[in-house]
Structures are given as C-alpha cells and as structure tokens.
Amino acid sequence: MTSSPSLYEKEHDVGIEHRRDVEADPEHTIDAEFGGHEARKKLEKKLLRKLDARMSILIVIYILNYIDRNNASAARLRGFEADLNLKGQEFNTLLSILYVGYILMQIPSNMFLNYIGKPSIYLPCCMIVWGMISTLTGITNNFVGALLTRFFLGFVEAAFFPGALFLLSKWYKRSELGMRTAVLSCGSLISNAFGSLIASGILNGMEGKLGHTAWRWLFYIEGALTMFVAILAIFILPDFPSTSYTWLSPEEVRLAEKRMEEDVGVGDEAETESGGQLHGLALAFTDWKVWWLALALTSLVVSLSFNAFFPTLSATMGYNSTITLLLCAPPWVFATIVAFCMCRHSDKTRERFWHIAIPLGFGIVGFIIAISTMNLAARYVSLFLMAQSYAGFIIFLTWVSNSLPRPPSKRAVALAFINAFSQLGNIAGSYVWPKKWGLSYAHSYAICISTNGLCIIMCYLFKKHLERENRKFEKKEQEEGRPAGFRYIT
C-alpha cells in the first residue's frame, strides 16, 4: 500500500509546477506586468522602503511592551514589595501570573487577527488597553490588586508579539525575514537597556511628587506613554497585502503578493487555504515540528529567565539602586549589537542552527563564570555574555517562521502556539531565582546551563531532520527531471 503524500510534499509539488509555468512564460521571466526586470527591481525597493518605514513602529511598541511587563523588577528596588506588604514568593507570583493570561490568549488572538486582516486597528487597540492596565498598577495597595492587574496585563499583551511576527511573515520573503525579526526583537533588548535608564530617572526624580512614591510614578508615566504611542500606531501600522489599499498602489499590492508566491512557489492565500481558520488550527496541532519547536523554545526561555531579575543580579555587585539600574544598560546595548550582526549574517548565509548555538554557548560560559566567582569585574562580564545569548532566541523565532511557511492560517496558529507554550518557561523561570539562593545564585545558573544545553541539542536534531527533507526533495527533482524548488533553511 502506498502512503499519501504529506502536506510538505504537496507544497513542494505545487511549487515546482508553478516554477515550470513561470519558465514557460517569457512575460513572467521579464516581469512584464511591472514594466520589465529593472522596473520591477526599482518598484520592489520602493515597496520595501515604504514597508520598512511603517513597520518600524513595531520596534517602539515592543520596547514599551517589555517595559510595561518588566517595570515591576525596577519598582522592587524602591519599595514596591514593602508598600504592598509582599511576603515569601508573592513577588515571584506577580511576575509569573502575567504569563498565564499571556499563554491563554495568543492562539485565539492570532486566529482572530488572520480572520479580520486589520492589524493596524487590532494591535493598537490592544496596546491602549494594556497601557491603561499598566497605569492602574500604580494605584494598587495590596497583593491581590497587583495580582489582578498583572494577570490582565498578560491577557492583553498576548496579542502583540505573535501578531507582529505573523504580520512580518505576510510581507517579507524568508531571506528577508531574519533581519526584520531581529530588528523587531531588538526592541526587547533595547527596552532592557533604556528601560533601566528611564526607570532610574523616574525613581530618582519623582519620589514624593503629588504625594505619590516613585515606584507608583513609574507605572503612571510608562503606562501613559504606551497609550500615546498606540494612538499613533493606528495611523502608521500596515495591514496585510490583501487589505492594504490606502498607502500602496494597485501595482505595489500585486508585487507584494507576487513576492510571497515566488518565495515558496505558491501564493499565501487562495492557493494554500482550503479549510478556513479551524483547518489551520488542526494542521498546526497535528504537525510534530510545532510541538518540537515549542518544547525547544520553552527550554530556551527558562535559560533566559535571568532577564526579569537583571536588576537583582546587577545588585549582587553591591552598588546602590541608581548605579545598579545604570549598570543594567551596557550589557543590553552589547546584546543588541550582537543580535543585529548575527541575524544579518544568518540571513546572508541562509543558515540558522549555528547562529543559534554559538550565542547560547557563550551564554553558558557567562553562567559558569557567575557560578565560579564573586569578583566584581568577572560577574559584570558574565552579565554581558548572558545578555548576548538573546541573539539565539531571536534567530530561533525566525527559524520557526521559515520552517512552517504555508498555509497562513497554520502559520498564524503555529507562531502563536509556540510562543504561548514557551511562556511556561517564563512561569517556571519566575521561581528559578529565589532570594535564598543569592548572592551567588549558583543553583539558578545551573538550571539555566541545563536548559540552554537542552535547547541546543533539540535544535541540532531539528536541523538534521530538515537536511534529510531537503535531500528527499533534491532526489525527487532529479528523478523527475525538475528544476530546484523549495528548500528548508537549516
């Protein structure tokens, strides 16, 4: 009995037939509908410039997303725990509860975004709500109040990151996606750097103003800033190619759609969508690769849990709260530069695994240094090495989009599910850094080394699987005399 072809073999076959048609038709070869090859190149550059300019607002949104999520760690240095009478593991619970709502909402949020096709409305509206909730954290007076605001903050923030990744994947080819994902994700690194500087200024300058403590002003000011940027984003963010008619010409819309067709040999909508949103849900949950990537990313997220406790780890060097926050910035500036360079090189070479494994390897070196010594210089260097491991996280996210290309309903669910599932790592990571394990936090770093290493191993096995799939594609093409078609990026 012969087995039926897999979804990926079908995609592969459709892609080859499409390429055959393209080669047989000279009008397509010279891009006649765009005025020829040179005219198309100029139009494509113009399209990418316009698109990049509008997408840049996502970086600002992501910076504010992370600042609103992590400002509790900065507030902790100026009386947040004492004023709310937090005891035992209650602060850690405030950090972890955010990810409960974050996990629950990501998949339905991305399915809804794919259905309505209007990210320019949906994402900013969610942003306005989370900015309002963040502001309300400043008026809480006890653990329960803070717990409720943190839970609903995660509920609404869940819309942004998987939605932004999905939006990028609707416009950019796979060879362009790594750099754009890197630039977006660098927003989280920049927020860690400049969020600490902003927090330092607010916490030092606003103590006692209008009768409020400085940590309350931190939530008021940063929440208000989020709502202001959200209003601007409504007029800046693009929608999907099929729903973007106000800022693109019909020719540019057609080119945007054609670029995505050419990238994998099939279109992004009619040629791959056959069963609606629930069909995409079923495709995602029955693909073992989705679960494998979700587990690998969860392991990686646990190893990156030091991010939420970075001011605490910086404080182990013995400086006051102001200097501690200022010392948090340079490691994240360094991490941003490393991530940008690694992602650019990863796109150029069309290689993912080693660009993930190398930053994670240096992160392990940083963990080992932190375990081995309490020397101030060595521990500060270890913070740089830990922070730069975020480059591997960013490239991993790009690899997910590359490895699950079509149909878009499946990609929307897969991106949301993998990102949501990985937040279990943030929930676990919130309890990896208890105060009783300080000042060395040796047990915490040992957990990070283990989970980091597990992620590298899982990524290596996934790379080997994709290489086998590519060899099967190549063998089938040679047997049938076809030109080279779709290949996974490994």
Tell me the layout of helices and strands.
Elements: H1 7-24, H2 26-29, H3 37-55, H4 57-75, H5 80-83, H6 90-116, H7 119-137, H8 143-157, H9 160-171, H10 174-205, H11 214-236, H12 250-264, H13 276-285, H14 288-303, H15 310-315, H16 321-349, H17 353-372, H18 376-388, H19 390-403, H20 408-429, H21 442-480
Helix pairs in contact: 4-7, 4-10, 4-11, 6-8, 6-20, 7-8, 7-9, 7-11, 9-10, 9-20, 10-11, 10-16, 10-19, 13-20, 14-20, 14-21, 16-18, 16-19, 17-18, 17-19, 17-21
Descriptive overview:
By secondary structure, the protein is an all-alpha fold. Helix content is 77%, strand content 0%. It is built from 21 helices and no strands. Helix 4 packs parallel to helix 7, helix 7 packs antiparallel against helix 11 and helix 17 runs antiparallel to helix 21. The radius of gyration is 23 Å and the shape is globular. The relative contact order is 0.14.
